[in-house]
Amino acid sequence: MTCPDGPHPGLRGPLPGEDLLWKATLMRLVAPDDTRVVALTEALAPYAWRTLTPEAVSRRALAAVDPHRIHGAPGIARQDERITVLSDFLAECPWRSLTAAGLSRRLVSVLDAWRQESQWLEIRLHWTQDGV
After folding, report:
1. For burial by CB atoms within 10 Å, which of 23, 39, 48, 57 has the most?
2. What was the pLDDT predicted at 80?
3. What's the CA gap between 108 and 37, in Å, rounded?
4. Per-residue 3-state assignment (H helix, E strand, C coil) for the chain
């Protein structure tokens, strides 16, 4: 996904496989006081998060907003596809120039956009199976 603050090159429509990238450019940011944004901001604050890799920031983000338990400890499974979604977004966004709150807001928004896209894909799959 591309950073919602950055301009999309040329304002053209999406190319094949670029649907999520295009939608991220038009993505609506969640409210700054969203509980997930607050939780993620608090999770990032004690760390020098700008020095972390995109994957490490993605893992920390997921642990803060959607904690799972792996063998009794909080964490995110290595194969969690959301890590790639967030890491790809961070690769396209100048995230190190954002505040912790600004980054948190964008990461939560990306997760919401990805979740909505996944739900639509599932609905379309069911329609296809039902012959609609």
Report:
1. 57
2. 80
3. 6
4. CCCCCCCCHHHCCCCCCCHHHHHHHCCCCCCCCCHHHHHHHHHHCCCCHHHCCHHHHHHHHHHHHCCEEECCEEECCCCCHHHHHHHHHHHHCCHHHCCHHHHHHHHHHHHHHHHHHHHHHHHHHHHHHHCC
Which tokens in the block code for residue 60?
């920390």
Q: Are 37 and 31 in contact (CB under 8 A)?
A: yes
Q: Which two tokens stand for residue 98?
A: 């954002």
Amino acid at 82: R
- Bridge partner list, 69: 74
d(C-alpha 63, C-alpha 61), whole Å: 5
Q: For residue range 78-104, list pLDDT tens digits in order.
A: 678 888 999 999 998 899 999 999 999
Average pLDDT value for the chain: 77
> What are the tens digits of pLDDT across the range 25-41?
567 889 999 999 999 99
